[in-house]
Write a sequence for this structure.
């Protein structure tokens, strides 16, 4: 879960590398480093590394007035070895330097073999083994490109790498397997990075590398081969992203910006039904009508916030489409004995489309003969999208904050469309019901915009309990997963320990935690379970617990001492979870502000989880 940038150009590429790292800092921010080739005279590597944020590295580069036309850079999320300068990338062996995103599973064996050959290791990382292995391969084959390909053949695991060498200062080599990497085609040179956002400063023309690709970057061009050396052509795409889309603008944090972008993100995601009178399976791909017609059950695989979206969808799919639905944590699914069924629609959900556990779970399901697969994702060219037979691309736009917000609500919108489509294909959705649901979806951006306007009241709530050490979230039915998501958000960015339970489970254990120091946050929509929920809330008050209740129109929960009520503008039926999660996002955000934590880059976490 690191970010890498590579550049060779007719300009000083140090600012390009540093700005690229700044855009990739969501992928890791415990250390950063760069290595450039000074080519005025004898080529010579110069490396800078810093613990902490990219800003620390920038200060170093400015102090020494670093300048070069070829180099590599890296921002790290630690896997092997603690965050410290000696574990920061790039790693050097002889006259070559390497940056790496991923995990090399056989690095201990490689390390032992290389130590036996006399190589000394100065870090705890798996990446240093790649550097020394490449240096060893160069002894037998001095061509850098060929030596990189030979090195990759010995690696077990996932990687995206960038390499430069004093012996060949006219080119940089990059490669990928299991970790994202793309090329940037510029007017003054060529580039590579883990994410398009890192390259928007120099070009919007990008080439998405496939697993097993190796590429050579030169001033005047690039070439791509497979690992065995077979030349391949990869199409040049023009990114729709703009540099402004990944800038903070007038907001204090990316998380706040992305919360407020949700009306637009939902509108963009649902644009295809804006003017249509009906739902069509083709929203999910040209083969979707045939595939959906054969589906008898649904399996949803996801991690973290995306898993919570899947839990909401289970309620929807079983209620409307009448199809059995199972939701599994992707990191657990492939490590247990399960019963495959070829008539199952396997739905994988991921913001980045590069989530290692979700991608592995998708491949595992396919290996069991379940080839009816659908990816719901925010990145069109991602590995998960390419692996799935069908796809729905949410149009949330770039999400930089580590704690997911707009990606989650657009995933829910996509899952609502999927639910209605499956119900229609199976003959369980009348024309009247279809029209009502479509109208609700079209109105959703407006409804969400009204909820976002509640920020001032939510900010006042956050002041009240930000000093607490624990919190309990409650929900019932399809809002229980929203309680789970609210607890996750609070944990992620404020570091307040939070748990979520179905409200009916209080008396089976969690009620023992409730006292005057334990704030209890309840999601209370005006639905069929409201009266049950009110009884659960009385159990909390009877034990001295202080309640913070997110209700909506008609819930009729009175505000009394110890019971704080915030009423959403309207009840939204099936789509109510989308509205109710937004105040929980704002509550977590403002609690984190009061506590003074790093909202966008919480400790120990990174955005795109590309390692297992």
């Amino acid at each position: 879960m690191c970010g890498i940038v590579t550049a060779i150009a007719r300009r000083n590429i140090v600012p390009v590398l540093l700005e690229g790292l700044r855009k990739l800092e969501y992928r890791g921010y415990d250390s950063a480093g760069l290595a450039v080739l000074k080519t005025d005279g004898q080529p010579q590597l110069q490396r800078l590394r810093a613990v902490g944020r990219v800003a620390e590295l920038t200060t170093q580069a400015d102090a020494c007035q670093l300048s070069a036309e070829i180099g590599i850079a890296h921002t790290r999320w630690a896997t092997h070895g603690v965050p410290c300068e000696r574990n920061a990338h790039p790693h050097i062996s002889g006259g070559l330097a390497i940056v790496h995103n991923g995990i090399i599973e056989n690095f201990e064996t490689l390390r032992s073999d290389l130590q036996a050959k006399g190589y000394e290791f100065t870090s705890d990382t798996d990446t240093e083994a790649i550097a020394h292995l490449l240096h060893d391969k160069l002894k037998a084959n001095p061509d850098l490109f060929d030596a990189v390909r030979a090195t990759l053949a010995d690696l077990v695991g996932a990687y995206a790498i960038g390499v430069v060498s004093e012996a060949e200062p006219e080119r940089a080599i990059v490669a990928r397997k299991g970790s994202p990497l793309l090329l940037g085609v510029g007017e003054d040179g060529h580039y590579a990075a883990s994410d398009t956002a890192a390259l928007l400063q120099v070009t919007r023309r990008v080439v998405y590398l496939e697993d097993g690709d190796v590429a050579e970057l030169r001033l005047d061009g690039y070439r791509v081969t497979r690992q065995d050396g077979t030349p391949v052509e990869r199409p040049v795409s023009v990114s729709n992203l703009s540099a402004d889309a990944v800038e903070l603008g007038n907001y204090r944090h990316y998380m706040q910006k992305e919360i407020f972008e949700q009306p637009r993100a939902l509108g963009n995601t649902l644009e295809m039904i804006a003017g249509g009178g009906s739902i069509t399976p083709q929203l999910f791909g040209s083969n979707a009508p045939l595939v959906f017609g054969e589906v008898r059950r649904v399996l949803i695989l996801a991690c973290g916030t995306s898993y919570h979206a899947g839990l909401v969808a289970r309620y929807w799919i079983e209620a409307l489409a009448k199809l059995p639905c199972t939701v599994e944590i992707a990191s657990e699914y492939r490590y247990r004995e399960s019963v495959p069924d070829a008539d199952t629609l396997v739905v994988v959900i991921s913001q980045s489309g590069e989530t290692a556990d979700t991608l592995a779970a998708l491949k595992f399901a396919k290996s069991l003969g379940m080839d009816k697969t659908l990816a719901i994702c925010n990145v069109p060219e991602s590995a998960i999208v390419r692996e799935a037979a069908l796809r729905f691309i949410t149009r949330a736009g770039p999400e930089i904050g580590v704690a997911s917000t707009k990606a989650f609500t657009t995933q829910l919108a996509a899952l609502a469309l999927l639910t209605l489509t499956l119900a229609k294909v199976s003959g369980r959705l009348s024309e009247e019901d279809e029209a009502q649901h479509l109208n609700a979806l079209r109105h959703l951006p407006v409804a969400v915009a009204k909820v976002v306007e509640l920020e001032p009241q939510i900010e006042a709530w956050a002041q009240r309990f930000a000093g607490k050490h624990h919190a309990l979230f409650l929900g019932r039915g399809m809002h229980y997963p929203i309680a789970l998501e609210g607890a996750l958000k609070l944990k992620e960015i404020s570091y307040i320990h939070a748990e979520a339970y179905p409200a009916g489970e209080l008396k089976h254990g969690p009620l023992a935690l409730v006292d005057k120091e334990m704030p209890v946050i309840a999601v209370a929509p005006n639905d069929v379970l409201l009266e049950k929920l009110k009884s659960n809330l009385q159990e909390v008050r009877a034990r001295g617990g202080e309640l913070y209740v997110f209700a909506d129109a008609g819930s009729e929960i009175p505000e009394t001492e110890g019971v704080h009520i915030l009423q959403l503008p309207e009840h939204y039926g099936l789509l109510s979870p989308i509205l109710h999660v937004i105040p929980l996002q704002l509550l977590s955000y403002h609690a984190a502000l009061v506590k003074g934590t790093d909202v966008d880059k919480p400790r120990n976490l990174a955005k795109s989880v590309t390692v297992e």
